[in-house]
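Researcher: Before we compare anything, I want clean individual predictions. No alignment, no superposition, just each chain on its own. First chain goes here; please echo the sequence and then give the C-alpha cells.
Model: Echoing the first chain and its structure:
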Amino acid sequence: MHVLFIGGTNEVGASCLAVQIADQWIVIDAGVRVDRSADPLPNFALLEDKDVRAIFVTHAHADHIGALPLLHQAYPDAPIFASRATGLLMEVMLADAQRIMQRRAVDEMELPLYPGDLVERMLNQVRPLPVGEAVTVPELPEVTVIASPAGHIAGAVSFGFVASDGSLVVSGDISVTEQRTVCGAQPPPIEKPDLLVLEATYGARLHANRQAEEQRLAQAVAEGIERGGHVLIPCFGLGRGQEVLLLLVDAQQKGLIPEFPIYVDGLVRRVCSTYHLLPEALTPRLTRQISKGYYPFAGRRITYVKDEHDREHILAGEPACIVTSSGMLTGGPSVWYASRLISNPQASILITSYQDEESPGRRLLDVVDRRQDHLDLDGVSTLIQCHVGKYSLSAHADAGELASYAASLQPLYVALVHGDEEARLALRARLPDAEVLLPDNAAEFTISAGRVVYPVTHNHAVALSQLAVGIGKGRLFERAHVEQLWQVVSQIPLLRIVTARELALIWEGQAHEETITRILDVLKQDPRYRYFMPHRALEEAFYVRGKSTASELFSDLIGQVLFVQVAFGGSPMPALCRGLLPTASVRVQFAPGVSDRIRYAYSTILDVLGALPEHIEERQVSSYLTELSRQARVLRRSLSARKLALACQENTSYTLSELCELIGVSSRELVDRLAVADLVQRSSSLFYVQQMPQFEEGQTIYTLAPNWQEALKKDEAEPSTSQLDRRMVLQILEQHIGNPPDLYRRRFDPDTGDLTLSFHFPDIAKKKYQQALSEAAEEVDVSIIISPYAHQDALSEVAQQVLPEGLSIQSHPSVYQESKHIHFEASGQTTPQALKEAQTHYRDLTGWHITFTGATIGATALPQTLPEMVAEPVAGVLVSPEEALQFATQRLSSLPGFVRVYAEDSNLIVSFLFPDVARGRHASLWQEIADATGWHVKIVPIAARDALIEVARRSLPDGLVCVGMPEVLPAQKTVRLIYDGYDSQEDISDARTEFQVTTGWMLSLLHVSSLPGTTNGSHLHSRALATRPTDKPYRMEDALHYAQELLKPLPGYLRVKVEVDSHTLIPRFAFPDIARERYAERLASISGVTGWNVRLHMIIYPPALKEVLTRILPEGLSCVDTPSIYQEKRKVGIVCVGQAAPELVEEARRHFIEETGWELELRGSSVEVLAEECVSEHIPMLARGDAMVRVIETFGTASDFYQLGVDDRRTTLWLHFFFPELARSRYAAQLEHLSQETGWKIEVDKDVHQKALVEAVIRLLPAHVTIIGKKSILHEQLTLRLTCTGILEPEQIRHIQQCFTRETGWSLVLDFSGQQAFYLATNSNEQKASVEATARAPLHERDAQVIVQTKLGTYGNIRRLLVDAIRHILMVNLQFTNGQRHIDTTLLEELEKETGWHIQLT
C-alpha cells in the first residue's frame, strides 16, 4: 500500500491524500488554502501518470473540497463518493465559492480557479455512500470501504479501506464531543489498521468546557444587546453558524437570556435551508423535530436576511444579534457588518471560529491582547472601539480526544496531518504506543502488508449497485418512467427526501438545467403524486412515497394556508396551519370570529392554497386571513362555475392550479386560488372532489361530476353577478334570529355583499345566535359576521345597573376592547362581597370585566385620610417657615420617591410616592428635621396610585405581561394584578418581594387562567407582547387611554380606534381636515409618548356634517337630498330648493370651509333662481303606488333606468340608473319636479351598474381587442380599470376614454398585456362574407368549442380555449406540433360559418 501526501500535512488547508491500494489509485479530499497569499491549490502535479479510479470526500468544507472541480477535470470518469449529506452541501458550498471568485475577478482582477460549468459536471459524478456500512464499489472490486460518522459537521465521515495489501483509516476532521447539530465521531470498525491518517488541528491544546463556553457566549450576546448595540458573530457558514443559532435559541427558550431578534445572513442562511433536507445526518433530536414539521433553523426567533436593504434596516433598528459568514472576516456579509460596527463602542464582535494567522479575524483578536488598535477592512483602516470576545466552540477534537481516538484503533502507524508543526509534535508525544509519522507535502512511503489483516467485524461488504446512475440509458424521461425511477430510489436506505438534481443524476447520468427541468416537468404531470410528492417548504425537493411517514409528508403543511371545512354543512374557510398533532390532525388559526376550535383532523383539509406570504408578520396573520377571505369572495362572485365546467373535459383530473388557469386567474396568488376552490366546493352538482389530501398524502383532485350536463340544463342562464338584494338578505336574517333588541347596526360590504352585525355585547350575541347566523349565511351565500367591538354606551348603562350600593361613578369609563375590560373612577364605600357580585353579574350580562378605583372597600375604612405625625421637636428654637422649608427641601430632595414639602400650622407636611416605605426608612431624618427647625413633621399617608401601578408592572418577571389595568386596594394596601404568560414560582415570589420593598404595599398576582370565563386563547395578543422590553412602545390599553385623555377635551373629537396589526391609533374627529391642521402638535405628542403610529380617520362624520349644514344654510333654502360626499375632492354637494341672495350663499360656503375644511357645492339654489311656487311647505304626499306610477311614467322609457326601490320608513323612492353620476345631472329637473309633485324624497342610488360599465367599454373597443383578467372599479375616483389583449395607439385610447366618459360619467384606464395574437386578417370582400356568415344565430358555446377543438386539434395542441360570450368570440391558444406556422384562412371561415362564432388564434 503506497501513500502520497499531496497537501494539507503541516497546515490547515489544501487537504489531499492519494493512496494506492489493491493496485488501484484513489484520492481522498481535494481542498484549497484559506490563506490567499499562498498558492491555493494542492500540488496536483504529483498525480501525473497515476490512474485515479475513484475519489472520496470526507466533508464539505472548502479546505477539503475547494479544488475538487480541478481534480475532476483531470479525471472526468472517476466517480466521487461521499455521504448523501456531503453531496448536497457540496453543491451549496461550491456555488458560494463561485460567487466569491466572480466577485474577486471583478474587484481584484483575480482569475477564478475554475468555471461554473465544470462544477456542474463534477456534481454529476457524485455518488452517495451509505454511512455505517461496509461496501465495495465497482471501480475498486478488491477494496472494502467503510464510512463512519466523524462528528465535526453534518455529513462528515471518516473512511476505512481494507484490501489484501493493507488497511487504512483516514479520519478527516473529527469531533468526538457531541454537538447540538451532530453526534460525536465513531471510528471505522477496523482492528489495528496498518495506517491511521489523523488530523492534528488542536493537537497542542485542550478545549475549555463546551457547555461553559456556550453559556459564556450567550451571556456575552445578551450583555451586548443590553448595552444598546448590535452583536455580530462571524462564523463558518457550514457547521458553526448552525451551532450558534441553536445555542442562542435554546438559551432564550430556557430563560437564561432575554429574547432579542436573531438575523441570519450569507452562507449561514443557505446552509440552514439545506440542513432541513438531510435530517439523517443530524442528531436524533433534530431528526425527530424535522420529521414532525418543525424546522429548528427557522421560526419566530430567527429571521433570514435577503439583501443589503435588509442589512441597512437591521443596523438602523433595535439592537439585534447577527450570525453570518465568513468566520475569519475575509469576505461575505460579516465584513460589511464589521466595517460599520467596529468603531461603535456599544457594538460587539464575538469570534467563535478558527482564525488563520493572516486573517482579519486574527488581527481583531489581537485587540484582546492590546497588540493592535486598528483593523484594515475593505482597504480602510478603522479604529477598533467595539467590544471583542473569543469563544471556543471548536468542531475539532482536542489533544486528549485525538489520542483516545487513535488508541481505540491501535494502528501500526499514525500519520499526523492538518495541523501546524507545534500541534503535530505535541500530539506525537501523546501517542507512545504507535509509530508516528510527520509527513510534509509531497512526502510518500509504502507500508508492507506482511502482517495478518483481521476481517472487518460485524460488517459484511455489500456491492454498491452500479445502476444508481444513468438508469435511463439515454432515454428521454417520460411519465411512464416515473415508477421505474421510484423503484430504484426507494431501495436507497434512509433516502426519504430526494432533490430533482439527484433524480436527474440517477436517470440521465448527468444533472444540468435541462435534465433537472425535464424531471420537474414530468413529475408535475402526475397530479396524484403517487411516487414522488413535492415538498412545499423546500424548492425542487420531493418525498419518496412508501418510505416517508405520514407525519413527514404532512410536515410541510406548517406555514401553509389551508382550505378547511369548519363544521359539517358549514362553509369552508382559509386557515393558517400552525403545527401537527399526534392524533392525525393539524393545529390551525382562522380569521377572528370564524371558529374557536384550533384542532382539525386531516380529513377536514379540502385543499392547500399556498404558503403564507413572507412579508406577513406574526401579528398580522389574523387581519390577513380576514382580508384574504373578503377579496376571494369578491373575485368568486365574478367567476362562473358554468364556464369552468364547460372548459373542463370529462374523465380528466384537474388540480386547483389547473382549474385556476382554465378560468383565467392566477394559479399562484392565494386570493385567486381561494376564490376558485370556494367556487368549486359550492358547485357540487358540477364538480366532484375525487381525492382529498389525507388519502395517500396526495393533492386534491377535481373532476366533472357524473351528471354535470344535466345540472347545467337546469339553469342555462348565467348566474347574476349584480348586487345582492339587501332586503332579501335582511328578511332571511330576520327569519333566523328575529329582531334582537341588542342588535343596533347592520352593515353591508359594498364589494362583497357581506353583512356585519353590531351587537351591544358581541360575546353574549355569539352564544345566542352563532348557529342561526351560520344557517342564514349558507342560505343567502354571503358571510355574516358579528363585529367584535362592544357598544360603549351600553357597557356604561349596564355598569350603572350592577353598581354596588354605596358607590357612584365619577367619570367617563376607560374602555379596553382588546382585553374586554372597562374601568371607572368611583367614590363611596362598599364591601368586597358586593363588588365581587357586581363583577360576576356584569360579566354574565356583557362578557366583560369591570373594575373601579377611588372607592373604599371594607366597612372599617376611613372616609378621609389626614397627614400622620412622624416626628416632634425635642428641643430647639422654632425657625421661620422659609428657613424650615429650605432646610427640609435640602435634606429630602435627593431621596427616592420624594414629591414635595409644605408648611401648615407649625407642621411640615411631606409627600412621598410611597409613604409606607419612607415613614420607617427615614425615621432618623424626620427627627433631625424636627429638632433643627422646631417644627412638627407629618407625612401624607396616601400612596401615589399611578406610581403603584407602574412599579407593579415593572416588577413582573420577563415573560409575563399585565392583562388590563391593575386594581389598587387602599384598605388592604394591596395592588391586584392579572397577568398572562408563564414563569417559575421563584421569580414570581421575587417580584412580590421587590414590590413590597419598593412601595411597602403587597402585590397580589393572579394568572389569567384563574379568572372565571377566561379561555386560553383570550389573551393571545397579550402573550405575544410579553417578550417586549420595557423601553418599547406603550401597551395597547395604555396607549389608547393616553390618547383618549389627551383628545377628549378637543372640539369635534369622537373616538380613538386601534389597529393592532399595524400598531396604529386612529383618532376620529367630526371634521378630520380641521383636526389635522389645528391639533397636529398634540397628535405628534401622542406618537412620541406612546411609541404608536397615529393616523387620523379621514372620513368626515355625516351627522356632524348635517348639523353644520342646518346651521349655516341661508334662510329660504332647504336641503332636499342626502349630501353627496366626495372624499378625494374634499367637497360636499347638496341639492337645495328655495331662494337666497348670492352673497348669503357665498357666506355659507365660507363658514362651511372654516368649520369643516371642505368645500360646499350648492345645486339648484338661488344661484339658479328657483320659482317661488317650488318651495311650498305643505306638499300633499301621494300614496305609495301612485308615487311609483309617476316615477315609471317619467323614467320608464329612459334607456339608463333599470330599477325602482321604496323606503317607506323614510318616505323615499330610490331610482337605480346604470350611471348614477350622469343621471343626477341629466335628470336634475325631473327629479326635483317629481319630489314636489309626489311629496316623496326622490334619490338616485349611488352604486353604478358594473356590468353596464364593462359593456360600454366592449362596445367601444375594436374587434381584435379583448378584455382579460379582473375588472378594478374605484368608486371614489369614479374610475374603471381593465386589462386587455393587443395594443392600441394613444389616439385610439384617448378617443375611447372620451366616449366612455360622455356615455357613463366615469373615467376609463386601459392596461394592455402586450400579448399579441396572430389573428388571420382577411381582405374586405372576405371580411364582408365572414360577417354575413357569422350573422346567423351562434351555436351554444359548448357545441362551438367541441367543433373548434376537433377541427384545429389536427394542427397542434390546444393549450387553452377562452370564451367571450358577449361578443361570441372563441380565443384559441394553439401550439403547432408539425412545424407548420399558418392555418388556411378558408378553414377558419368554414369554422365561423358552422359555429356562428368569430375565431381568434393566439
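Researcher: Okay. Second chain, same rules.
Model: Second chain and its structure:
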Amino acid sequence: MKKSILYLALFLMSLQSLLAQQGSLVKDINVTGSANGFRIYESISVGNMIYMIADDGFLQKGIWKSDGTAQGTVLVKELTDATFVGRLTSSGKLVYFAVTSRFDYDYKTYLWKSDGTSQGTVPVMEIRSNIVGPDGRHLVDVNGTLYFNGINGLMKTDGTTQGTVLLLPSQSAIEDMVNANGKLFMIMYLNGNYRLYKSDGTPAGTVAVENKANGGVIWPLGVLGNEVYFRYSSSVDGLYKASDILPVTPVKERFSDSQFTFYSVGSTLYFTVRNGSINGNELWKTDGTTAGTTLVKDINPGAASSDPVLMAAVNGQLYFTANDGVNGRELWKTSGTASTTTLVKDIRPGSADANISEITAVGSKVAFVANDGTGDKLWQSNGSLSGTSILADFQASALLNVNGTLYFNGNAGGGRELFKTTMLAGGTSAVTDIARPESIPVGFTKVNSESYFSADDGIHGRELWKTDGSTAGTMLVRDATTGANSTNPEQITNVNGTAFFVGGNGSQVHSLWKSNGTTATTVKVKDFTKADTLQGLINVNGTLFFGIINGSGSMQLWKSDGSTAGTQLVKTFPQTSTFSPVTMNGQVYFGAWDGINSVDLWKSNGTAQGTVLVKDVTPNWGESMYTSIAVKGNFIYYILSEDTPSSIDYFLVKSDGTAQGTTVIKEFDAYNNLFSKFTAVNDLLFFVVWDGAAFDDIFGEVVWRTDGTEQGTFPVKKLRSDDGDPSIHTHDLVALDGFFYFVPDLQEELWRSDGTEAGTQQVTNIGSQANGVNIQYATVVGNTLYFSASDGKSGRELWKTNGTAETTSLAFDMTPNGSTKFYELAALNNQLLISADNGMYGAELFKYQETNTANTIRINAGGQDFTTATKKLFIADKYYAGIDRTSSVASGDILNTTNDVLYQSARCSPSFSYNIPVPNGTFDVYLHFAETYFGAPGKKGGKGSRQFHVNMEGSRKLTNYDIFVKAGGAMRATAETFTVNVTDGMLNIDFLTGAADLPRVSAIEVIAASQTLNAVADAYVRDGSYSATNYGNLPELNVKNAAGDASIKRSSYVRFQLPQTVNAGSAKLRIYGHNHENSKDIYLHAYGVDNDSWTENGISKNNAPAASTASLGSVAVNDKYKYYEIDVTSYVKAQQASGSNLVTLLLADPNNRNTRLVFNSKENSANPPQLVIQPASVSNSSARLNQEGIMAENAQAEQGSSIYPNPVKKQFTVSLSMQHAGPISFELVSSAGKGYAVRTTQDAKAGEKAEVNISDLTLSTGIYMLKIQSQATTEVIKMLVTE
C-alpha cells in the first residue's frame, strides 16, 4: 500500500470545543389554571397606599406596595431566606416590620423600616424574638413614634439613628402594648410578676403604674378613651382599669379565670369573659363603672359558651361571630342590649358553622369570608337579612379597608391576585395579573434517551410525562386516572427500558404501574391497599424489587416482572420501618430485621429460600443499617449500630455478600452517632458524620473517607454545624471527575475533596452567608457540575463549575433582575433539564446545554482524541447514550483512507444514539463506517451479515444499511452524507438494530451549513404618554408609525450574540408575526444599532438608542402568520469586522402607514426572533474525510516519495520526491511513538532512490511510520514490518 501525507501526529492532542451556553423553555405544560399567584400574609393602609407582606409564588416573601393599579403594585424588597416576616406597623412616614433570619449558629429577629423604596427598606436594629409569637402587640405607634421591645428593654424610634432611644432597660419581654390617647401602656414581667407600665416617651416618664393590689396584669390590654382595661389576677380575679392618673383600679370582680377579648365602639368597651358557673364565655360591655359593666346577652344560654370573636364596628353597632348552640357559628350584631343582639343570617343553615374567618368594616357594611356549604367566599352585610349576600363568589383573605374601598387577596380560578371592590354589584375587579399556571415537573428519570417525570397540565391532573428535551418530544404519556384527578406518579424507575412507577397517595389506593412510553403500554401492574407504602424500587438484572411498609410496622419484600401474576411477595420482615436497597452481582441487598436476628444486612435472589441474612454482625438492634448503604466494586458498605447497656456503638462494615467476607472496618467514637449517605468516588467512599465533640466538646460535622481498609478510613475535614440540631446538614453530596463535592451547612459554599486533608478545600467564594448563597440541586452533566445558587447580585440562578474557581460561573440567568425558583435539575443526553419558575410561565420545564459554536464538531466513535494528517481533530467519543459498548481491532490496513486509526475503533451495540449539542441551524452530517469484522481476513460473513437503521432528528436516513456492500468489502472506509435541520439545540442521531447483527459507526462529522441564533434580548418601545413604560417581558413585539398622536408610535429592538468562531457569509433576520389590523402589505424595515448597552427590562422610548445605519432592508408584512425575512448581512459583517459579537437591530415602519404589526418576542414559547448565519466558507467536499485522503494521495502520487516492497522485512528502497532539498534524514516511528534512526547505504538525494537496511534494528511486527525530512519538506509514509 502506498500513501503519502504531509503531517504526522506522534502524540495525541487535546482540544476543548468552543462552547456557548443556551437555555430555553422546553414546554409550557400547564396553560390553563393556577393554584399559586400573589399571596398576601399581612397588609396595612398608609394613606391611599397599601403595604403588604406577600410573595408572588415565585419570589420569596417580601414587602410589596400598591396604589390600587396593576402598574402601581410592585415589590419593594425581597427578603430572602427569612423564617418570619410580619407585624406591619405604620408610624410617621415609615412602615415598620419584623424579620427573623439565621445568623451563624442562631436565629435573630430585627426591626426593619421602609419608606416604600428598595434602598430605603433596611434593618433598624435587633429586637426580642417574642415578637414572632401569636400573642400580644409589640410594635405600637404613638403620635408618629414607634415603640418596641428591644434586646435591652423598651425603646422608641423615629426611624433615625439619633431618634432610636432606650427608655426602660430590662431583660424581660414585654407582653402587650397599646396607645391610650397618646400614652403608651404595656405589660412587663418584673420581679416575678406581670406589671403595668406607662411611658410619655422619656426615660424618666417610663414608670410602673401605681398598684396597691397583690396580683398580676394579664394580657391583652383594652382601650377606652384615656383608660386601659385588663384582667387582673389576684385573690379575686376581675376586670380592672388604669390611666395616666389612675392607679390600678377594680371595675368588676369575681369573673372566672379566663382570657378577655376587648373591642371599643364609641364610649362602650365590649369584652368577652366567663362569669363563673353562671354563664359561659359571652359578650359583656363596660363604660368604666361597676354598674355599667353588664352581660350584653347570654347568646348560648347557661354554662355553655357562644365564644364571640372577630369583632368589627359599623355605625355604632358591633358585628361579631358567635355560636348560639342551634345555628352554629354565624354572623351576629349588637347595639349593646340584649334585644339588639341578634343573629344577622344563618349563612350555613342548621347547626353547621359558616366558618367565618375575617370581618372588616367598610363604610356602612361589613365584609367577611364565610362558607355557605359551597366553599369559602367573600360576603357583605349591612346588618339586615336581605342585605347579607355574596360579594365575590370565590376564595378571599387579607381583607383591608382603604378609604371605603375593600382590598383583598382572592382566587377567581386563575390563581391568587390582589382584588378590590366598591362593595357594589359589578364593582369587584382584579388589581394584579401575577398568577401563572404551572405544571411543576418533578421526578426526572432517564429511560433510554428520554426522561420520564410527573407533571400537572391543569386538565388531566398530575400524570406521567416524558421528554427528549424538545418541545415536540415532551408529551403526556397517559391520563391514567381520567379527568382532573391525579395518578401522582412517584419513584419512577428504569428497568431495562421500561419505566415502573408508583401511583396514588394519601387516601388513594397505592398501585404499581409500568410504561414503555405510549398510552397503550402504560398499564397498572397491581393494586395495593391504602395502608401500603411502596419504597425503594430498584432494577436487579431486569427484575423490579421493592419494599412495602404497612401500618403494622412490617416490611414486605416484593418482586415484579411487569405482570400481575409475576408481581409476588418474597418475604415479610416484622418491625422493619423502611426499605433502602442496593444491588450487586445480580442480587438485592438491604437492611432488615426478621424478628430473630438483629437488624443487619440481608440479600435476596428473588426467592424465599434465597432471601437470607448475610451476617449477624452485632447481637443487638442496628438502626442505622437502613439508609447508610452503598456498593463500591464488589463490596457492600454500610453503617451498623450496636445497642449496649451503656451506649450505642456505631460501626462501618464491609461485605462481599458472604458471612466470611463481612467484616468491621471501623468502630466510631461515642460522639459519632449520625451518618450521611455514602458517595462513591473512584476507589473511595465519602460520608459525613455528626460529631458531638468535633471542636473540643463542641459539635460539628466531619467528612470521612474510606478505601475499604481500617488504615484508609479517616476524617479529612471538620465543619462547623448548625445550632445543636443533631442531624446531618451538609448537603448536595456528589461525585465528579475523581472528586467528592459537598456543601457545608454554615459555609453554604461549594467544597470538594480528593480524599486527603490538604485536598479538601472550598472551590470558590460565590457569595456570602448573609446574602444567602444557598446552593441546591447539584447535578452532574458530563464533566460539569450544575447547581442553583445566589451570589447576592444576580439572584438565585443556575451556576456551573468544573471544580476550579476559574470555571465556576453563572451559567443561565433565567430571571434577569430577579431570582429563579428551582424545583429539580436532571441530566438527559448531555443537557440539563430544569424544573423552575422564572416568573413568566410558572414552574415549567426548561433546559440548558453547552452548545458548540464552532463550525464543525468531529467525534471518534469508540475511540480517543485523534488528529488527522490534515490537522482535523476528532475528539474522544462523547455525546452518546444507550447501551454502552464499543468495538476495535488492534491492527490491519484500512483501505480508502489515510486515517486508519479512526476506523479501527467504533461504537457498536444493539441500540445507541448521539445527542450532540449544536446551535439551531442546518448541518451537513457525515457518518464514517468500516466493516472490520464480517468478511475481514480470518473472519466469516460478508454481504448481509450486518444491517442496521439510522435516524436523524426523528427521520429515517438509512434502512438496513450494509457497510460491507457500500464500501465494496471489509476493511474499507466509506461515508454517508446528510443535510439536517436542527431546531431544538440538539442533533439527535439514532442507530437501531436492523435485519442482522448490530449497528456500528466509526466517526461522525457535523459541519454547520447555517446557524440559527435566538435573540438574547428584545423589547418594543412606545412613544407619547407611554414613553417611560418598559415592555420587555411581553411575549410580543410591536411596530406602528403614524403622523399625529405620538402615543400610537411603536418600534422594536432585537439583540443577538454572534458565535465567535463563525465568519458570516450571509445573515438574515427572521421574525414571526403578521399585520394585526388589515390585509395590506406594510413594509417592515431593519436598522443597525451600534449601542448595545440597553437592557430588556430597562429600555423605554425615553432611553432607547437611535439607529446607526440607514435601512438595511425591508419586507412586506401582510395578515398571514409566518416568518418574514430581512437580509442584514452587511451590518453583521461590519459588527464582526469591528470586533463586536453583539448585533442590535431596530425594527420600524418609516412610512407612517398607521398599521400595527405584531411579532413574537423571545418570551413567546413558539417562533421567536431568529438570526440565520451562513458561514463564509462551507465546502462539503472538504469535510469528506475519505475523499480528502484519496484526493491527497492522487494529487501527490506522481511527486511524493514511495517505498517498496511494503510490507517490509529487513530492507527496502525509498524513491525520493523532487520536493526535497538539501540533506535528507530518515526516522522510523513505532505506533507507541518510539523513534529509530535509519541510515541509507549512500547519501540520499531528491529525485533518486535510497536503499535502507533495518536488519540491525530490533523491531516487532506491526505498523511503523517512516519520517522523511529535509530543509524543504517533511513526509510520512506508513509501512508494515513483518518477520
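Researcher: What stands out in the second chain?
Model: The CA atoms of residues 741 and 1165 lie 35 Å apart. Additionally, The two ends are 18 Å apart (CA to CA).
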